[in-house]
Amino acid sequence: MPIATINPTTGETVKMFDPLSEADIDSAIERAHNRFQSYRHTSFTDRARWANATADLLEKEADQTAAMMTLEMGKTLASAKAEALKCANGFRYYAEHAATMLADEPADNVAVEASNAYSRYQPLGVVLAVMPWNFPLWQAVRFAAPALMAGNVGLLKHASNVPQSALYLADVIARGGFPDGCFQTLLIPSGDVERVLRDPRVAAATLTGSEPAGRAVAAVAGDEVKHTVLELGGSDPFIVMPSADLRAAVDTAVIARIQNAGQSCIAAKRFIVHADVYDAFVEMFVAQMQNLRVGDPTDPTTDVGPLATEQGRLDVEKLVADAAADGAVIRCGGKRLDRPGWFYAPTVITDITRDMPIFAEEVFGPVASVYRAADIDEAIRLANDTSFGLGSSAWTRDEAEQRRFVDEISAGQVFINGMTVSYPELPFGGIKRSGYGRELTAHGIREFCNIKGVWIA
């Protein structure tokens, strides 16, 4: 894939970028390595000042930044602006809490026969971040804000279709006051990731993306014995039980499925509905999905913009077409729109069986798969019958059912009577083939720290 801004609303190439040369890559790694030697000793006070200044710029420039993200990957202007402001909040969160999160933790001096013993959190060094296009700024900030506040430095290899977003993030961090070399964008193809990760000056890596990409990075990091955090997508269940507020569940289900044109790792993708409310849910759900306005993401009345890439639309089309050919029922949508750009109609599909690829694969587009469950046991079995385990949502007013969902759903997050959302105050990450490690909260900032045990006689 070329490194280029290609407007998904029109399919037109806006701007091409030359990839860095081998000499440029080496220079960037050396700059990061050298910067770390001094940056690791900066105070939390200084880092927080720079983080807050970066947040100020993100807020001030939110409108322009939103327009850039919309141009590059097609999200609506409203959602793009919300993302820019969320990034500012992420920087402020770690500016406020990093010192406490990474404070020395005392041990039991008597038990370890010491005059003083404690755990100390120290930065690892240069961390490579391989990031996706669907949330061009927030995905990277989830790494950048805690990593920088911990005293690490970052190298960002962003998706090739959002180069302007990648360059902007490095620029705004520099203008926020972080010293030169603390955070650099590498405009490189995927084939150069291994070379960067194998460089001895690079200490660790984090990746958000596809399962094949995660496997490739994990294999190289394992060979080099370097720490990694992986978030590899999900096929998140959205369970509706008879006691649920059905109207609220349907309203939220629509948003949870079509947010970002369905291109979100934690978007609800599999709707598992109790038989007692299945027909009513499907009728209401289909009606709302049919009424969504698909169109130009710069138009404030648009609900769903284009998919970000032509290949992404082809992938969605194939999964839906194959399912329909095998007997699944398309209740609405199920086709591309006859217009320029990479638009696909909001789709609801039912009567899916286990032998259909759509049952097992993540559908990265505005396509909702709906399943009927006879009871809570079958709902939980269906929810867990996937190789993924990122987020989940369950709708019930029965407290016993709520406890079962919290305890028994195999996922990194469980939301009760609400849609899955990432917050700095909650750990974010998955299990099974959704990856490992955590972002956000204290867990996220500690991922790229050496937890050093200290014992003094």
TrEMBL record:
<dbReference type="GO" id="GO:0004777">
    <property type="term" value="F:succinate-semialdehyde dehydrogenase (NAD+) activity"/>
</dbReference>
<dbReference type="InterPro" id="IPR047110">
    <property type="entry name" value="GABD/Sad-like"/>
</dbReference>
<dbReference type="InterPro" id="IPR016161">
    <property type="entry name" value="Ald_DH/histidinol_DH"/>
</dbReference>
<protein>
    <submittedName>
        <fullName>NADP-dependent succinic semialdehyde dehydrogenase</fullName>
    </submittedName>
</protein>
<dbReference type="InterPro" id="IPR016163">
    <property type="entry name" value="Ald_DH_C"/>
</dbReference>
<dbReference type="GO" id="GO:0006099">
    <property type="term" value="P:tricarboxylic acid cycle"/>
</dbReference>
<dbReference type="InterPro" id="IPR016162">
    <property type="entry name" value="Ald_DH_N"/>
</dbReference>
<keyword id="KW-0521">NADP</keyword>
<feature type="domain" description="Aldehyde dehydrogenase">
    <location>
        <begin position="3"/>
        <end position="453"/>
    </location>
</feature>
<comment type="similarity">
    <text>Belongs to the aldehyde dehydrogenase family.</text>
</comment>
<dbReference type="Pfam" id="PF00171">
    <property type="entry name" value="Aldedh"/>
</dbReference>
<keyword id="KW-0816">Tricarboxylic acid cycle</keyword>
<dbReference type="InterPro" id="IPR015590">
    <property type="entry name" value="Aldehyde_DH_dom"/>
</dbReference>
<keyword id="KW-0560">Oxidoreductase</keyword>
<dbReference type="GO" id="GO:0004030">
    <property type="term" value="F:aldehyde dehydrogenase [NAD(P)+] activity"/>
</dbReference>
<dbReference type="InterPro" id="IPR044148">
    <property type="entry name" value="ALDH_GabD1-like"/>
</dbReference>
